[in-house]
């Protein structure tokens, strides 16, 4: 956060990586970081530490004496851990301290570190280290894929029988309400069929008996 | 996509329940109210709809013009005589979600009182919605051979005198 | 502090009052929000900002070179450049790769103007390195794509290589690596042509490193630009139905015939036709369109995509360890005229 609180005028975008970063090798997007601070003012104390006993700091620095420490204690370690980042240190008298980060895709981040402690500066530096250079925006979706569909995108005909495509409309077959129970007409017809079958079987049995008796 | 629905012998209120998801687009996995994912529905035989029970006599449609003494209470059968598509239209309109998208969705509902649909609309149709209530066949619409082959269940006794 | 305030020197005495650390907002609901002590300067600031945006739109604003700032160390930048890309550069070659011919010409002219009679400039421009880099890239991209997409016809592979080595991609990659501030050229900001040449020269400068490192660099920065892109958008096939017919004829299979699968809303503006292309009653592919002709064309495209294995669901291009193991293929893929399904069955897909 470069000091901004969310507003409706922020843009929105999908998740993206500059130049497909990470597909091959991961390239740290932070190009250079500039530490601007004042050598004497108390607000920059956390950034550039002073020897408290030397007495050069002003009297009102007793609670903001931590910001200048960063440059003395942790900066060289940061530069060593991130050889791809060019670190500039710019002392400016009577100006408040700040961090200016520049990224490979041209994005810039500015962070004021006035009255920040050494830990605060360390945290902000670590934050800026990992950014991509794109402006802070609302992320519309937290996923991205190049293959959004495996089985195929849904169409209105996905789970429909293809026979509907060759029917003439209006079609009685497709319009008829589903029959869950057989109607009385159906049941009568079934009974009739069964009766006919029974009669046929009886007839066959009689014929067989008649044939046997005639044979005998 | 254009759907067809035959309103013959159907309860308009139940039919509206069935039709509204097609007008919304709720039946689709890509549904979103802002997506305008609704379909067209062509309703035929609106004249032959069947209100349940005594609703034809008792169901009342209220309308007020906004002016003084502008209230009218019209019974269902009277309304049906005036405009046979009106009952179906009101049923669907009242079932749709009460927001500004309602009129757009109603514009996609095409109601015809009978079978006669213009070819320009009939050519678009690619599916049919199933009815909910089975339509019985009229006795004089049965084919003659089916009538003849139907088993005789009952006959008068021999000494019965038919007058 | 907002750049537009700094740009107008006349307003300096007013700026002094608002030197407190401010919130970097561009939309102000009230003057107090942007730290203004006096509200009456708001109309002035509004006018200044309006002029600034107008000048920016017209391109009249001077763009500062990063190298003109006090906090700039070219040696450190070059060191960081190499470390960031995880590549070892030879310092001299790197500087040569970053020097454009226009810069050399400018320096020579400047020395002549200053009165130096014989400008013995030792710096050389990056043209040779650019040519070398282009050779390295085409020598790798072709075999890599042939190995990764063995069923894609040779015309497709060369179209993809041409796309990857085009000025747009080269300059985009150059900008994305951070060459904008490092390049030494006459114009500022550097034009895409200059940027593309510079990036090619950077690849050329890698020529001295082991081949595997060079190839990995080209793969990670150049070939990676194909990720997420449709191959048949880059390599457009005109008349896909004729091409499909030719392929099926080569494969001694039936002629392609298109059949309508479904249609909807024929008489409306939003008509859809779903057409399938069949050969010997086997479905080769299907496509959607607003008219039947569009749908047939799309169906033929789909059939070709399925044959060449470049659908959406195809295997992605290999990177990293998978790519290290991939054996590069120098012999050409099947050409489109001689492509057949029988031959494609002989190709090993790993």
UniProtKB/TrEMBL annotation, chain A:
Q: What is this protein called?
A: Large ribosomal subunit protein mL43
Q: Does the keyword Transmembrane apply?
A: no
Q: Which UniProt keywords apply?
A: Mitochondrion, Ribonucleoprotein, Ribosomal protein
UniProt family annotation: Belongs to the mitochondrion-specific ribosomal protein mL43 family.
GO BP, one annotated term? mitochondrial translation
Q: Where is the composition biased (Low complexity)?
A: 197-216
Q: Which organism is it from?
A: Chionoecetes opilio
- Renumbered to this chain, region (Disordered) spans 192-216
Named from the GO MF annotations, one term is: structural constituent of ribosome
Q: Which GO terms describe its cellular component?
A: mitochondrial large ribosomal subunit
Q: Which Pfam families match?
A: L51_S25_CI-B8
Q: Which residues form the Ribosomal protein/NADH dehydrogenase domain?
A: 39-132
Q: According to its UniProt record, where is this protein located?
A: Mitochondrion
Q: Please name the InterPro entries in this protein's record.
A: Ribosomal_mL43 (IPR039927), Ribosomal_mL43/mS25/NADH_DH (IPR007741), Thioredoxin-like_sf (IPR036249)
Per the record, the major location class is mitochondrion
UniProtKB/TrEMBL annotation, chain B:
* Name by which UniProt lists this protein: Large ribosomal subunit protein uL13m
The reply to whether Transmembrane helix figures as a keyword in the UniProt entry is no
Annotated GO molecular function terms are:
mRNA binding; structural constituent of ribosome
GO terms of biological process kind: negative regulation of translation; translation
The source's superkingdom equals Eukaryota
Q: Which UniProt keywords apply?
A: Mitochondrion, Ribonucleoprotein, Ribosomal protein
Localization, UniProt: Mitochondrion
- Keyword Ribosomal protein included in the entry's annotation: yes
By sequence similarity, the record places it as follows: Belongs to the universal ribosomal protein uL13 family.
InterPro entries found in the cross-reference section: Ribosomal_uL13, Ribosomal_uL13_bac-type, Ribosomal_uL13_sf
Give a GO cellular-component term.
Answer: mitochondrial large ribosomal subunit
Output the Gene3D superfamilies linked to this UniProt entry.
Ribosomal protein L13 (3.90.1180.10)
Q: What is the lineage of its organism?
A: Eukaryota, Metazoa, Ecdysozoa, Arthropoda, Crustacea
Pfam families hit by this protein: Ribosomal_L13
TrEMBL record, chain C:
Q: Record's InterPro entries?
A: Ribosomal_mL44_DSRM_metazoa, RM44_endonuclase, RNase_III_sf
Domain of life of the native organism? Eukaryota
Residue span(s) of domain Large ribosomal subunit protein mL44 dsRNA binding: 235-339
Q: Name one GO cellular component term.
A: ribonucleoprotein complex
A Pfam family in this protein?
Answer: DSRM_MRPL44
Molecular function GO labels: double-stranded RNA binding; ribonuclease III activity
Does the UniProt entry include the keyword Mitochondrion?
yes
The places in or outside the cell where this protein is found are: Mitochondrion
Q: Which residues form the Large ribosomal subunit protein mL44 endonuclease domain?
A: 73-206
| A biological-process GO annotation | RNA processing
Family assignment? Belongs to the ribonuclease III family. Mitochondrion-specific ribosomal protein mL44 subfamily.
Full protein name: Large ribosomal subunit protein mL44
In the UniProt record, the gene name given for this protein reads MRPL44
């Amino acid at each position: 956060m470069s000091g901004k609180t969310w507003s409706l005028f922020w843009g929105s975008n999908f998740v993206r990586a500059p130049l497909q970063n990470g597909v091959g090798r991961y390239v740290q997007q932070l190009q250079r970081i500039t530490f601007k601070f004042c050598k004497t003012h108390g607000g920059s104390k956390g950034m550039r530490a002073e020897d408290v006993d030397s007495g050069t700091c002003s009297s009102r620095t007793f609670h903001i004496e931590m910001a200048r420490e960063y440059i003395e204690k942790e900066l060289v370690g940061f530069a060593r851990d991130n050889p791809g980042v060019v670190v500039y240190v710019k002392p400016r008298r009577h100006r408040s301290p700040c961090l200016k980060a520049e990224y490979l895709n041209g994005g810039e981040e500015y962070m004021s570190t006035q009255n920040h402690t050494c830990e605060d500066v360390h945290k902000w530096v670590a934050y800026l280290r990992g950014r991509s250079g794109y402006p802070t925006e609302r992320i519309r979706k937290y996923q991205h894929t190049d293959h959004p569909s495996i089985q195929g995108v849904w169409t209105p005909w996905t789970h429909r029988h293809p026979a509907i495509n060759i029917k003439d409309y209006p079609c009685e077959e497709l319009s008829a309400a589903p029959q869950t129970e057989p109607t009385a007409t159906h049941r009568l017809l079934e009974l009739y069929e069964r009766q006919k079958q029974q009669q046929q079987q009886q007839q066959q049995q009689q014929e067989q008996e008649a044939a046997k008796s005639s044979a005998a | 996509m254009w759907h067809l629905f035959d309103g013959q012998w159907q309860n308009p209120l139940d039919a509206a329940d069935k039709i509204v998801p097609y007008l919304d687009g709720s039946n689709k996995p890509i549904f979103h109210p802002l997506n305008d994912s609704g379909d067209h529905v062509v309703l035929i035989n609106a004249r032959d709809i069947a209100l349940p029970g005594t609703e034809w006599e008792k169901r009342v449609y209220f309308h007020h013009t906004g002016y003084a003494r502008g209230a009218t209470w019209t019974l269902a059968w009277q309304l049906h005589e005036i405009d046979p598509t009106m009952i179906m239209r009101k049923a669907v309109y009242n079932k749709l979600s009460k927001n500004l998208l309602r009129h757009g969705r109603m514009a996609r509902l095409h109601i015809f009182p009978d079978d006669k649909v213009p070819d320009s609309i009939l050519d678009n149709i690619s599916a049919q919605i199933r009815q909910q209530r089975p339509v019985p066949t009229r006795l004089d619409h049965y084919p003659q051979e089916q009538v003849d082959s139907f088993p005789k269940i009952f006959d008068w006794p021999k000494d019965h005198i038919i007058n | 502090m907002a750049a537009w305030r700094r740009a107008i020197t006349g307003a300096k005495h007013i700026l002094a009052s608002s030197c407190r650390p401010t919130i970097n907002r561009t939309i102000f609901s009230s003057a107090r929000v942007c730290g203004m002590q006096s509200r009456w300067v708001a109309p002035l600031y509004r006018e200044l900002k309006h002029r600034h945006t107008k000048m920016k739109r017209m391109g009249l604003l001077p763009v500062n070179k990063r190298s003109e700032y006090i906090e700039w160390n070219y040696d450190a930048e070059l060191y960081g450049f190499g470390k960031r890309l995880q590549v070892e550069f030879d310092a001299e070659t790197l500087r040569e790769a970053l020097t454009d011919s226009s810069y050399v010409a400018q320096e020579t002219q400047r020395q002549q103007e200053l009165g130096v009679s014989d400008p013995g400039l030792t710096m050389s421009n990056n043209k040779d390195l650019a040519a070398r880099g282009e050779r390295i890239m085409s020598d790798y991209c072709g075999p890599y794509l042939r190995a990764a997409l063995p069923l894609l016809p040779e015309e497709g592979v060369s179209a993809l290589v041409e796309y990857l080595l085009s000025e747009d991609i080269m300059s985009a990659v150059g900008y994305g690596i951070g060459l904008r501030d490092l390049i030494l050229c006459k114009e500022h900001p550097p034009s895409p042509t200059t940027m593309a040449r510079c990036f090619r020269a950077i690849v050329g400068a890698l020529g001295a490193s082991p081949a595997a490192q060079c190839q990995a660099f080209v793969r990670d920065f150049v070939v990676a630009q194909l990720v997420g892109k449709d191959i048949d958008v880059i390599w457009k096939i005109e008349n896909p139905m004729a091409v499909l017919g030719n392929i099926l004829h080569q494969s001694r299979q039936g002629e392609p015939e298109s059949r309508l699968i479904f249609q909807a809303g024929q008489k409306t503006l939003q008509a859809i036709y779903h057409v399938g292309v069949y050969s010997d009653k086997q479905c080769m592919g299907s496509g959607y369109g607003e008219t039947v002709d569009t749908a047939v064309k799309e169906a033929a495209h789909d059939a070709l995509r399925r044959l060449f294995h470049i659908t959406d669901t195809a295997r992605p291009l290999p990177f990293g360890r998978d790519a290290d193991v991939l054996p590069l293929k120098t012999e050409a893929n099947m050409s489109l005229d001689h492509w057949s399904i029988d031959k494609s069955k002989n190709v090993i897909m790993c």
